[in-house]
Amino acid sequence: MFRQFRSAVAAALTDALADLGYPTDDLGIEDPPDGVDATLASSVAFRLASEAGAPPPQVAAEVAEAVDVAGTEYLARVDTNGPYVNFLVDDAYLADTLDAARDAEYGRLPPNGESVVVEHTSANPTGPVHVGRARNPIIGDAIANAVDYAGYDVDRHYYVNDAGRQMAIFTWAYETFDESELPEPAREKDDYDLVRYYRKGNEVLEEGDEEAVEAAEAEISSILQGLESGDEETYERVGEVVDTVLAGMEESLARLPAEFDEFVKETRFIRDGSSDEVAERLKELDESVLEEGAWQVDLTEYGYEKKLVFLRSDGTSLYTTRDLAHHEWKFEHYDRAVTVLGEDHKLQAGQLGAALDLLGNDTDRLRSTFYSYVNLPEGKMSTRAGTAVNLDDLLDEAIDRAREEVESRMDDRIRDDDLTEADVERIARQVGIGAVRYDIVSKQPTKSITFEWDRALDFEAQSAPYVQYVHARCCGIVAEAGGTESPDGERLAPDAAVDPETLSTPEERDLLKVVARFPAVVEQAAEDLEPHRVATYTREFAETFNAFYRECPVLTADDEATREARLALVAAARHTVANALDVLGVEAPESM
């Protein structure tokens, strides 16, 4: 309802300003100041003060008087607080919010007919997923979820670098070394098994004798040339390594979970000729030059001093050449393209966008989100591999710590249901992995973060368990009341109409107002590609629900009408928090 109310307020304010002869280009609609009991406010009086020749509070009063309250949906009244014009909702707003949020799909916006591809993770298939880059699949998956909730048709892609030097090194090493020359794998898993070959190969290239290195480089160069020339045998050799490692990485990512609709291979754009076609078009640009045998694009008009090389002196293409073909393929199949990248890829992404623009593409359809890497405090975990902390290690540790926390709180549970060992294990997984995801996705992507266990697993602080506990509490209340979901799973008892005037306490109305904002939060998170906005919302939601829970007994309410109304509100709250957590990729336990 918040989205509808915001639109109605914007229209009413525009009309009021026009009637008063004021410009309507900047309405200044925003959240009200702290302590003001309004749903929306406008700071337009600040902007109009000089034009009106009057102080902002006087202008605010003039504007408030001009707003058509009776003709504006959900608007109960308009008042002022100093220079602010405040808009307050009526009971119909709360009633419609309660009705809408009792649908299990609450928060999902109607399909808008636009398709979006979200490319994320795309780590080189050279070994297990590293914790430092775990922010990419977590943020990428949450962005895809938010865009999906906002009504777009979303595909999730992983772009596989299977044509670069690292994969040539890996293939050479895999075919060269014997199992007996390698250490034991850290885990019985394919990516952990094969990464030993990759590390051994790099060790030889860095420390081997000159003759061994020269022979290795010759074979590596031969593999690269085979890929570039379309040699099927070379594709099969490299593909065996890539697919085996990628399967192991995919298994680890699925634990988050981060799953993909398609793994798009870089070699695809060599094999179909589109990379060569892009290179030929680039050559024809006025901005392209041939220097020292290599073809390059001069991007100074876009602010990049460094030229973009797209063909080496030996005629082979580069990663960027193939990525240009990849992005033109995206534009052909999708209305919009989103890419999640590490902060060290900003230059590359900027040059890519500039080259795409020179090639005649509508680059307004392309968006990139950059993130800083995740750090772990020293001494908090063993690395196992000796040089890196892998995602599997982090998730195992999270589940172990969550299990300890859940077991330590068994005596404080408010529900009298018996938890089996399987229940405890399920909750430990939901809470532990949820804590990792939530802690990482709740921060602005550009800010570097250090993951700390005590904060992430704190049931009392603003963390995943704190929010998950609200959902579990809602489920407990509904279960105790005997409420069950209907066969289609869309509505949760009680279904009966509720008089919103029954929900008259500040805590009840505050909770309904927070519930009402959820679809708008989803919409904004999708538009800005900022899922941390949803995490911020869940913390506010949890605080508001807990205030309601403390002050408003549900099952022991004074009368039947109040009991039924509050039970309906709990059902609405359950759907809201469950779907907010779903956007973040965090499970919502039914018991904790």
Strand runs, count: 14
Cα separation of the termini: 31 Å
Helix proportion range:
40-55%
pLDDT average, as an integer? Answer: 91
Helix tally? 20
- Give start-end ranges of low-pLDDT stretches: 379-387, 484-494
Strand order of the largest sheet: 7-6-5-11-12
Q: Kindly provide the radius of gyration, computed on alpha-carbon positions and rounded to a whole number of angstroms.
A: 28 Å
Q: What does the main sheet amount to?
A: 5 strands, parallel
Structural class: alpha/beta
What general form does the structure show?
A: flat
Structure in words:
By secondary structure, the protein is an alpha/beta fold. Helix content is 52%, strand content 11%. The protein contains 20 helices and 14 strands. A 5-stranded parallel sheet has the order 7-6-5-11-12, with helices on both faces. It has a 4-stranded antiparallel sheet with strand order 1-2-4-3. Strand 8 and strand 9 form a beta hairpin. Helix 4 crosses helix 20, helix 12 packs across helix 13 and helix 18 packs antiparallel against helix 19. The radius of gyration is 28 Å and the shape is flat. About 3% of the residues have low confidence.
